[in-house]
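Complex 296.
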Amino acid sequence: MNAELEEYKDWITAGKIASDVREYSKEIIKPGVKLLDVANKIEDKIRELGAIPAFPVNLSSDNFAAHYTPSPDDETIIEKQILKVDVGVCYKGAIGDTAFTLDLSNQNSELIEASRKAVENAIKILKVGTTLGEIGKVIEDTIVNLGFQPIRNLSGHGLDLFQIHTKPSIPNYDNGDTTEIKKGMIFAIEPFATNGGGKIREGSHPNIYMQTNNRPIRDMITRKIFEEIKQFKQLPFSTRDLVAKFPLNQVKMALKRLMMANNIHEYPPLPEVSDGLVSQHEHTILMLDEPVVLTK
Ligand code: CO
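Predicted structure with cobalt (II) ion bound:
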């Protein structure tokens, strides 16, 4: 490894683990398998490879663009979904973030191709000085030319140590942003394509949470569960992360109380506004003189 890459070795490792886990998930996802088992196996694999999940694996079906992760009592069986798998890996604080879409319906290959091509074409134009608007334009043009819409209120993002979403926000359409990509930037390009209107809304039944404050808690069980939550170091978690130590009903009650105390934030699943089908692809990129795709 050359000296320049050596400086980013933890990011390279995080990216490699994320891509290995992404490929592993393709082996275990098939019709008839429980979504919950897939989620647990993917996160176990991340730990087996020496990292931790940077966020609960997102397994969002059909019209849901993102932020669906099964709860411990989820009964969903994988059948004919368009299934988005978004994997985040944290290795020594460095993060690898990658996603792909599986077409189990066997009827939506063009939609899936649209987001895949959009990432590919965006990476092709990347150089030091490329503007965020230019990236958004390539993504938008690619998706629209294939007959679909990009989701405009979801975007790619910068990455930092223990932080899965930092500046800049990388648009999935031409928003005219003239901010330039600089050398040393690490970021995720994450287009979503849909046959719907091109926007998501917030749905119900969140199962992804993140600690935002550290206010004192009176109730003893809630306090114990909060102590456990603090170990995630402000990375997102789900109820699945807590049920090894606490019963699900206690976890649910504690999360409600922590929400009321403003100690945690919840991330609800994100359906497309017109319930269009949604595909997603994502890679993490390190910008040097050339872009290095860390999750290749
Ligand atoms: Co991402």
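The first strand starts at residue 52 and ends at 53.
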